[in-house]
Design a protein that fits this description.
The structure holds two protein chains of two kinds.
Chain A (H helix, E strand, L loop, with lengths): L1 E2 L5 E2 L6 H10 L6 H8 L3 H13 L26
Helix pairs in contact in A: 2-3
Chain B lengths: L20 E8 L5 H9 L3 E5 L6 E9 L2 E7 L11 H13 L3 E7 L3 H11 L6 E6 L1 H6 L3 E2 L1 H8 L3 E3 L8 H12 L17 H11 L9 H10 L2 H10 L2 H13 L3 H20 E2 L8 H9 L4 H43 L5 H38 L1 H8 L1 H5 L8 H6 L4 H7 L6 H10 L6 H15 L3 H27 L19 H35 L9 H8 L1 H5 L5 H9 L6 H9 L6 H10 L2 H13 L4 H11 L2 H28 L3
Parallel strand pairs in B: 1-4, 1-5, 5-6, 6-8
Antiparallel strand pairs in B: 2-3, 3-4, 7-9
Helix pairs in contact in B: 3-11, 5-11, 7-8, 7-10, 12-13, 13-14, 14-22, 18-29, 20-21, 20-27, 20-28, 21-28, 22-29, 23-25, 25-26, 28-30, 29-30
The chains are: A mainly alpha, B alpha/beta.
Chain lengths: ~80, ~675
């Protein structure tokens, strides 16, 4: 059993990994790739590959290739609780 | 080695095709070590060309095992087999139409999640697959433990662990290919399924199209690609299906427009299962060597400094080792050959001696003397590429390249231009986007190549004495600023600032393979000698004829007449007819400028010419001449490469006119500014 950020729980097999990834992202907020990987019971590398693919398919929009500045000064910082 | 299902050691001869040759296709994503495997298997027995009708490189080679010849075809590096790019279409069309006896899928063990996506697509095609699980050493360094046997059972095809850079596993790969080709190993691949809620839809599509799929396409694969929304396959089936069936298919596809996700989802679920079953990783692994190095190499500030240091070292090494070799070749080989020819032709007419010594030996010698510099430069570049650094260079330069509407990937061919512009133009083949490729080709001639640098290195001390280093660096900086500005302008005017998405893999650092580097240097140098050598020799002879005819001295030649005719334009930049003629002959090869000036000034090419130039021309003229020389139209070999790679005389002509205008405008500005400050 796994617990989402909002406390909701689910078992592996409730939909496939890519749908669960999209569902997590639709919840909003900020996710680290490593946290998404933990939530999906897979590796960060596979999550990264899926994120790249979703961006290529136009389902996600990449806003910056890298973020080295941390949250200070980030326009999205108000929407998340790092 | 792991096999899916061995039938034991039955020594049956492999089953070659009708031409007696077993065809093996080598597939894989970019940067997984596919070229290393190709080179190790084929050695020098390979040839390079283009895929029919495309400017995508096709490499093919042969190797022999137990008396059977194997034709190895290196398919273009692709991330998937959907019709997103020419490379992906070429790879899948080859497998479907040519039906190779075996497909080798090279995957990177250290980034198995990404590499397996292509393998997932290959397993759905009608050819036996052998997986080459490369970079096992890097995976181990990353703390990953992969069980090839388990992976093989899961995939249903043989899996061969390899460390191709050290040649480990490559003989086993060849043996497995042999055993699959002769039927000793029977594969039963387990490709991914589409998401459960779309399996019925897939079946429905297959029923609609089954009897109309044009051979040799497999109906189940066509149905999958239709569900995925593949544009090429959809177009093909629209043409093949009766209108009623097409309408039915269209309705089914429209009702399931989320199917693209269902197909991808099935593949990722499949990859996830492979990883969970066959790979063990430490929970919180140690920080890897790659991560430690990348903290510096990809840092926004330190990354640039690391790049600058590496580039500085590359140039230093190239010139410190290459320049003395160049001088030695020039003096003893070219000079010696010229002396021998002159002595042998002592009794012959003067025109024949001139043609052979100055035209043919002079032209061929130019190519020869540049080889040491190019070989060293290409070797260093090859090593940086092979250890995985050049991808980081592209990454840190990405922001700068965006100013011109390009991505970091364009940096690699542009950097190659510091050696020679010809391989730089050819090197743009790594860029997928046609627009970005065209723009990079147009900008490549603005990178100061070794020949231009050699001219500047000779003329700057002649004109400026102790300030020569400063002036030389100023000229390089000027060329790069003009390159950036030109990129911005061309991008805005001709491409209206379009930009394509860019995803690039940063491979893990690994030890270089000297054989791969050696072959890379060999191929690039050979391409230079073939393309530049022939053209330079032919045009050298032509220029020599123009400078020798109609007889008498150079001052009365056709070439001098052209220079005098252009003098009114030259005066705007402070250049007299001799300097103009020197520029014109540099169209053949940049270093011709010095040879021409030595003839026109009536001196040798050494200190006599330097002293004569310093006495004859003011600083303003010298600055303007160096500026125009730096930015002038590229040599004829580069223009020929531009035409070949753009497939258009129009773009080659544009490149020529554009650089002519740019060099004259900047030359005039520099001259006027120098005159204004009293130089």
């Amino acid at each position: 059993m796994w617990v989402r950020g909002n406390g909701e729980t689910w078992e592996r097999g409730d939909g496939e990994m890519m749908e669960r990834l999209l569902a997590l992202l639709r919840e909003g907020g900020t996710w680290r790739v490593s946290d998404l990987a933990k939530a999906l019971d897979t590796t960060p590398a596979l999550v990264q590959v899926m994120l790249d693919d979703l961006a290529r398919k136009g389902l996600l929009r990449q806003v910056a290739a890298t973020c080295n500045k941390g949250c200070a000064g980030c326009a999205l910082s108000g929407r998340c609780n790092p | 080695m792991s096999t899916c299902h061995s039938l034991g050691e039955t020594h049956v001869a492999p089953t070659p095709g009708s031409d007696g040759v077993v065809t093996v296709a080598l597939a894989g994503q970019p940067n997984v070590g596919k070229s290393t495997v190709f080179n190790l298997l084929t050695g020098l027995d390979q040839h390079v060309g283009n895929w029919p009708g495309k400017t995508v490189e096709r490499k093919e080679g042969t190797f022999t095992r137990n008396g059977v010849t194997y034709r190895l075809v290196d398919l273009p590096g692709t991330y998937s087999l959907t019709a997103n790019s020419a490379e992906e279409v070429i790879a899948r069309e080859f497998i479907i139409r040519e039906r190779p006896d075996v497909v080798v899928a090279v995957v990177d063990a250290a980034i198995l999640e990404r590499s397996l996506y292509l393998a997932a697509e290959l397993l759905a095609l009608p050819a036996p697959v052998v997986v080459g699980l490369n970079m096992m050493d890097v995976a181990r360094q990353e703390g990953m433990e992969i069980q090839p046997q388990v992976l093989s059972e899961m995939l249903g095809v043989p899996v061969v662990p390899m460390i191709a850079t050290r040649g480990i596993g490559v003989p086993e790969l060849a043996e497995t290919v042999e055993r699959v080709a002769r039927g000793d190993i029977v594969c039963a691949p387990h490709p991914p399924q589409v998401r459960a809620d779309h399996r019925q839809v897939l079946q429905q599509i297959e029923e609609i199209v089954a009897s109309h799929v044009p051979p040799p396409y497999p109906a189940d694969w066509v149905a999958l690609k239709l569900l995925e929304g593949d544009a090429e396959i959809t177009r093909m089936m629209q043409e093949s299906l009766p209108s009623e069936s097409w309408q039915r298919l269209h309705d089914v596809l429209r009702a399931h427009d989320d199917a693209l996700l269902a197909v991808a989802s099935g593949r990722y679920e499949w990859i996830g299962q492979m990883i969970r079953t066959a790979v063990t990783r430490p929970r919180a692994g140690p920080i890897s060597l790659t991560e430690r190095l990348d903290r510096w190499a990809t840092h926004p500030l330190w990354g640039l400094l690391v790049l600058a240091a590496i580039l500085g070292f590359t140039f230093w090494l190239t010139y410190a080792v290459g320049a003395p070799l160049q001088g030695w070749l020039d003096t003893y080989v070219v000079g010696g050959l010229g002396g021998l020819a002159r002595a042998a032709l002592a009794g012959a007419p003067a025109w024949l001696s001139g043609l052979v010594v100055d035209g043919i030996i002079g032209g061929a010698g130019t190519v020869l003397t540049f080889l040491p510099i190019l070989v060293i430069f290409f070797a260093v570049m090859g090593m940086l590429e092979d250890v995985g650094y050049m991808a980081r260079a592209a990454f840190v330069m990405d922001g700068f390249m965006h100013l011109m509407g390009l991505h970091g990937k364009s940096f690699l061919p542009l950097f190659l231009g510091f050696g020679c512009n010809v391989p730089a133009v050819l090197g743009t083949r790594v860029i997928e986007s046609r627009r970005a490729r065209l723009l990079t080709i147009l900008l490549a001639p603005l990178v100061p190549c070794t020949a231009r640098m050699a001219v500047i290195a000779f003329l700057a001390p002649a004109f400026f004495g102790s300030a020569a280093t400063l002036v030389s660096w100023g000229m390089v900086a000027l060329a790069l600023v003009v390159l950036a500005l030109s990129g911005m302008v061309i991008n805005r005017l001709f491409f209206r600032g379009q930009r394509a998405a860019f995803i690039m893999e940063l491979p893990l650092y690994h030890l270089p393979n000297w054989r791969t580097i050696g072959l890379l240097v060999w191929q690039r140098s050979l391409a230079f000698v073939r393309k530049a050598g022939t053209l330079i020799v032919v045009v050298s002879v032509l220029v020599w004829l123009l400078s020798a005819l109609p007889g008498g001295s150079v001052e009365q030649s056709y070439l001098a007449a052209v220079g005098r005719w252009l003098e009114p334009v030259g005066r705007l930049m402070g250049l007299d007819w001799r300097l103009l003629v020197a520029l014109l002959t540099s169209f053949v090869a940049k270093e011709n400028s010095i040879a021409t000036l030595s003839v026109l000034m009536g001196t040798g090419e050494g200190e006599g010419l330097a002293a004569m130039l310093a006495m004859t021309f003011p600083i303003s003229t010298a600055l303007a001449f160096l500026t125009v020389q730096m930015l002038f139209v590229p040599c004829v070999a580069t223009i020929a490469a531009v035409r070949q790679e753009t497939g258009s005389y129009r773009w080659a002509a544009f490149s020529l006119v554009f650089l002519l205008v740019v060099s004259m405008v900047v030359g005039m500005a520099v001259y006027r500014a120098a005159v204004a400050v009293g130089w």
